[in-house]
Design goal:
The structure is a single chain. The protein is α+β, with helices and mostly antiparallel strands. The protein has 3 domains: 63 residues; 47 residues, no CATH class; 26 residues, no CATH class. The longest helix is centred in the middle third of the chain and has 25 residues. It is elongated and about 85 Å long. It comes from Nyctibius bracteatus (Rufous potoo).
C-alpha cells in the first residue's frame, strides 16, 4: 500500500522506536525533543504529531523499559572465615592463609548463597578496586551519567 520496500518500512519503525525509547529514557523536555526531530527534516505537521505521541506515551514507555530491565540479585548478608594451614606432612613450617566468604543474596524473593574462597592478597586487591570504583562514583562526570539514567 505504501509503494516502498520492506527494508524502508522496517528501518522507519526501528528509527521511530529508537527515538521514542531514548527520549523516554532521558525524559527530555518538549523543546529538546522538538530540536531532535527538527534535524530529521519532517514537515511541521509530522513534527507536532511525533511530539504529541512522545508526550502521551513517555511514561508508559519508561514503565515498560523498567519491567524489561534484568532483575539482578541484591545483597542480604555476608559470613566470612579465615583459615590458616600452619603445617603439612611435607612442610612443617608453612603458613597458607585462605579467606572463605559466604554471600547471601536475594533474587525474586528467593535467597541463595554463594561460597567464595581466596587468599588475603587477592582480597586486598579486590577491596582496593571496589574502593576506587566508589571513588569514581563521586566524580562530576559519573554523577551526570547517573542523573541522566534516572
Amino acid at each position: 500500500k505504501l509503494n516502498v520496500g520492506v527494508d524502508t518500512v522496517q528501518h522507519g519503525v526501528e528509527g521511530l522506536t529508537y527515538l521514542l525509547t531514548e527520549s523516554s529514557k532521558l525524559m527530555i523536555s518538549e523543546i529538546d525533543f522538538q530540536d531532535s526531530i527538527n534535524v530529521l527534516g519532517f514537515s511541521d505537521e509530522l513534527n507536532k504529531l511525533l511530539l504529541q505521541l512522545y508526550l502521551e506515551h513517555r511514561r508508559e514507555i519508561r514503565t515498560i523499559l523498567g519491567e524489561l530491565a534484568p532483575k539482578l540479585p541484591s545483597y542480604h548478608s555476608l559470613e566470612w572465615r579465615l583459615d590458616v594451614q600452619l603445617a603439612s606432612r611435607s612442610l612443617r613450617q608453612q603458613i597458607k592463609p585462605a579467606v572463605t566468604i559466604k554471600l547471601h543474596l536475594n533474587q525474586n524473593e528467593d535467597q541463595t548463597a554463594q561460597v567464595l574462597q581466596t587468599d588475603p592478597s587477592t582480597l586486598l586487591h579486590l577491596i582496593q578496586q571496589l574502593e576506587q570504583a566508589l571513588g569514581e562514583m563521586k566524580t562530576n562526570h559519573c554523577r551526570r551519567i547517573v542523573r541522566n539514567m534516572k
